Amino acid sequence: MSTRIAFLKGHGTENDFVIVPDPENAIDLPPSAVAALCDRRAGIGGDGLLHVVRSAAHPEAKEMAAEAEWFMDYRNGDGSIAEMCGNGVRVFARYLQRAGHVGEGDLAVATRGGVKRVHLAKDGDVTVGMGKARLPEGEVTVSVGERSWPARNVNMGNPHAVAFVEDLAHAGDLLAPPPFSPASAYPDGVNVEFVVDRGPRHVALRVHERGAGETRSCGTGACAVAVATARRDGADPAVTGTPATYTVDVPGGTLVITELPDGEIEMTGPAVIVAEGEIDADWLASLAG
Ligand SMILES: N[C@@H](CCC[C@H](N)C(=O)O)C(=O)O
């Protein structure tokens, strides 16, 4: 009988993840294995994978081990690596709580985008200190078919292009990554958010994620959108001295984003574990390489 590897499945506003607990970093997860696990027909299915490793056991996280016991080794559904995942970090924290590694309250999670402070509230929502946005200078354009829009370049640890559009349907079927220019703006690819207004400090988005395609939500994307919208609205907290809170509707739910006068961004939203099971280790091993 072949060995089994535990997995769980979870989502945050329907951005869904395969969760692989591996405290000692003993499981080989090459891009081919990640892509197969995230495959919605031949695998478990997910927009991405959360490899749960002790920071001390992962070469990319060792230096953060004193601050954060656990490292979110995040992978996109196509097997590529990303710096950060906002919905993923909430689901990651929910998993740690469920597994009994942490209780309700505050914890720190190491990510490739640095250590993130997470608060697991009594009501079930999870708040994450997402750090500060960077807004690289320069014009960016994104397009879909015949239409194109100027976009705001916002970096939340990972890259985003935020385009305000008249109608979310103008983003089309988003089956392919929307072309952008200049190519030099995003040498490693980009997550593209299309945004419409819903009301005062209330917007809605659709997103095409690098390495995953169109998803039902993107936490870093929602933060990028809140920042870009605050700048557009003349509500930059660094200038006004007042926090700016935006409600961001995504196809899979709602996230609430607050930017503080010092630039720190907080994101609050749900995180749910829906299943757990076992992966056939022989099948997984056959995918390596
Ligand atoms: N869904 C995530 C973002 C995941 C990474 C992204 N696709 C990238 O490659 O940068 C989120 O919730 O932030």
Automatic annotation (TrEMBL):
Q: Which residues form the active site?
A: 85, 85 (proton donor), 218 (proton acceptor)
Keyword Plastid present in the record's keywords: the answer is: no
Q: Please state which protein family the record places this protein in.
A: Belongs to the diaminopimelate epimerase family.
Alphabetized UniProt keyword annotations: Amino-acid biosynthesis, Cytoplasm, Isomerase, Lysine biosynthesis
Q: This protein is called what?
A: Diaminopimelate epimerase
- Binding site residues for substrate: 15, 76, 86-87, 158, 191, 209-210, 219-220
Gene3D superfamilies, per database record: Diaminopimelate Epimerase, Chain A, domain 1 (3.10.310.10)
What exactly does this protein do? Catalyzes the stereoinversion of LL-2,6-diaminopimelate (L,L-DAP) to meso-diaminopimelate (meso-DAP), a precursor of L-lysine and an essential component of the bacterial peptidoglycan.
> What catalytic activity is recorded?
(2S,6S)-2,6-diaminopimelate = meso-2,6-diaminopimelate
In this chain's numbering, which residues are marked as the site (Could be important to modulate the pK values of the two catalytic cysteine residues)? 160, 209
The record's listing under PROSITE patterns reads: DAP_EPIMERASE
EC number assigned by the record:
5.1.1.7
Describe the protein's quaternary organization and the partners it interacts with.
Homodimer.
